[in-house]
C-alpha cells in the first residue's frame, strides 16, 4: 500500500495527500470519539492564536507539564517543536534523527489543514525565542502506510526540513534495545497540562514501562496493535494529548513516540514503538 507523502517548495508550507488506508472493521463509536477529541484539541490551539491573546496565556499555577523538572540547557538539543507560522503557536513535538529529518506522529500533520506554514524549532529549552534556537521550514511529510487517524494505529511520520542542521546532535534511536515492563524510562516535552494550558520550558521526568494491557484498558481496548506500541506511566507523571511527538527515552535512546494520552498525573501514555518501524524509518531518511 502506498505511503502517504507530502512535498512542497521551501515556503514553510506543506500539502498532505489523503491516506489510502481504509480500515472498516474498527468500532465506530470508540473510533469516532477518539478522532473527534484529538481534532478538537488541535483546533483549540489554532483558535487560541487566531482569536484570543488571553485565552492561552501562560500561568505559574499551571506551568507543570507531566510532573517533571525543567530541562537543562543543552540536555535535549534534538527536541523539536513545531509552530504554526500563522498563529505563532506550538502544536506538536518531535525529535531530530538526522540533520534534516524529524521523527514525530502522523496525527501532528492532518490532511484537514493543507497549505499551513510550519516551522521546526530546536536547540532550545524555552518557547520564548532566544539566541541559541535553530529554525527550519517543514517542506515534506511522510506518514506511515496504513496510518489510522481514528485509532492512532501506525501513528508515525518523518518530516523533512528545508536545510540540514549540522551542529545539533540528533537523538539516538533504540532499534535493537530490549524493553520490558518495569524499565525506568524518561519522557520529555513542552506540551500542555490542559487543552490550552501551555508551558514555557522543556520538561523531563522519569516514567515506567508498563504492561500493554494497562493502556488497552485505559483506552477502552482500542486496537493500537500490540507489536506497534509501548505503554508507560508513573504516579504524578503524565503527558497530554498535545504532547504528541515527544520521545520516550531509555538509557538515552529513543524507544517511543508519545501518541495518545490523557492529561493528568499517572495516566498511561501510549507511545509508538520505534523498533517496530526500523525498516520504514530507514527507508525514509
TrEMBL record:
<protein>
    <recommendedName>
        <fullName>Peptidase S1 domain-containing protein</fullName>
    </recommendedName>
</protein>
<keyword id="KW-0645">Protease</keyword>
<dbReference type="GO" id="GO:0006508">
    <property type="term" value="P:proteolysis"/>
</dbReference>
<keyword id="KW-1015">Disulfide bond</keyword>
<dbReference type="InterPro" id="IPR001314">
    <property type="entry name" value="Peptidase_S1A"/>
</dbReference>
<dbReference type="Pfam" id="PF00089">
    <property type="entry name" value="Trypsin"/>
</dbReference>
<dbReference type="InterPro" id="IPR043504">
    <property type="entry name" value="Peptidase_S1_PA_chymotrypsin"/>
</dbReference>
<dbReference type="InterPro" id="IPR009003">
    <property type="entry name" value="Peptidase_S1_PA"/>
</dbReference>
<comment type="similarity">
    <text>Belongs to the peptidase S1 family.</text>
</comment>
<dbReference type="GO" id="GO:0004252">
    <property type="term" value="F:serine-type endopeptidase activity"/>
</dbReference>
<keyword id="KW-0378">Hydrolase</keyword>
<feature type="domain" description="Peptidase S1">
    <location>
        <begin position="65"/>
        <end position="285"/>
    </location>
</feature>
<keyword id="KW-0720">Serine protease</keyword>
<dbReference type="InterPro" id="IPR001254">
    <property type="entry name" value="Trypsin_dom"/>
</dbReference>
<dbReference type="InterPro" id="IPR050430">
    <property type="entry name" value="Peptidase_S1"/>
</dbReference>
